From TrEMBL:
PROSITE patterns: ADH_SHORT (PS00061). This is Glucose-1-dehydrogenase. SUPFAM superfamilies: NAD(P)-binding Rossmann-fold domains. InterPro entries: NAD(P)-bd_dom_sf, Sc_DH/Rdtase_CS, SDR, SDR_fam. It comes from Caballeronia grimmiae. Belongs to the short-chain dehydrogenases/reductases (SDR) family. One of its GO terms (biological process) is monocarboxylic acid metabolic process.
Length: 266
């Protein structure tokens, strides 16, 4: 049977760890050639590329800071030089720099907005330009697919993390407005909003039994999410199986956005 993403070219930002690495692997397993963007640590990206190659796939590690316009241009140039174009772009890079509101510095604010929101703007913009440049390809019904990695915090407020929550709220309207603008060109833009997924970004929330017990009070489905949960969602959103899905946030959160605190009348 033909793989869902056979012959397609993907780029995943922030793919040397966590969700990005899981998504890159899942896209490769579904038949895509994958560019693995990393920020500062080449080794895990190269290791993942070797792992994908050993499974019969093709992967290219590329360094870039997604908040830097020149870096993002160079990253897309590297993808096009190696693979000719790109069909699937997953804007995944993100970070937290937490502080109580009164103590949050402008640097804390800017770092998170620059990486999480401006980084997705630059990545998605270069993706749209590349889809438009090369025109339709027989590998997919869409001209191109963009997946923004959002968070349940695009809708759930998060005290102590206003920069992060603002960045994810911003991604919600970036994604929807862009989807509205480019859908007539058959470019599909959607988001995935993960709940609590076991990765380095939120290690404090699951590393000890006490922390995990506390976390699970927020998850009706009763388990933490794994990067594979997000990988499978990304493969579906990137494939023609979801061809009529446009401008939607897919929550992959074990029910976290069902506000379980209200289950017993609040
Ligand atoms: P992670 O820390 O493992 O991954 C984040 C990646 O982004 C890292 O590889 C990091 O190098 C990269 N990155 C950071 N700054 C960058 C920059 N300037 N340029 C390029 N890359 C940069 O954490 P993760 O949990 O895998 O997070 C991935 C995405 O998923 C983030 O956008 C995060 O907000 C989102 N998310 C995660 C969870 C969760 O529970 N883990 C929940 C909701 C949303």
């Amino acid at each position: 049977m033909q793989k869902a993403l056979a012959g397609q070219i993907a780029l995943v930002t922030g793919a040397s760890s966590g969700i990005g690495a899981g998504v890159a692997k899942a896209l490769a397993e579904a038949g895509a050639h994958v560019t693995i963007n990393y920020h500062s640590h080449a080794e895990p990206a190269e290791k993942l590329a070797d792992e994908i190659a050993s499974l019969g796939g093709e992967a290219l590690p590329v360094a870039a800071d997604v908040s830097d316009e020149d870096d993002v241009d160079a990253m897309f140039k590297a993808v096009v030089d190696r693979f000719g174009t790109v069909d699937i772009v997953v804007a995944n890079s993100g970070l937290q720099q937490d502080a109580a509101f009164a103590d949050m510095t402008l640097a804390d604010w800017r770092k998170v907005i620059d990486t999480n929101l401006t980084g997705q703007f630059l990545t998605a913009q270069r993706a749209v330009r590349e889809f438009q440049r090369r025109g339709p390809r027989p590998v997919s019904k869409a001209l191109g697919k963009i997946i923004c990695m959002s968070s349940v915090h695009e809708v759930i407020p998060w005290a102590g993390h206003v920069n992060y929550a603002a960045s994810k709220g911003g991604i919600q309207m970036l994604m929807k407005s862009l989807a509205q603008e480019v859908a007539p060109q058959r470019i599909r833009v959607n988001s995935i909003a993960p709940g609590a997924i076991r990765t380095p970004i939120n290690q404090d929330a699951w590393a000890s039994k006490e922390a995990m017990d506390r976390l699970l009070t927020l998850v009706p489905y009763g388990r933490i999410g794994e990067v594979d949960d997000i990988g499978r969602a990304a493969v579906w959103l990137a494939s023609d199986e979801s061809d009529y899905v446009v401008g939607t946030t897919l929550f992959v959160d074990g029910g976290m956005t069902l506000y379980p605190g209200f289950a017993d009348n609040g």
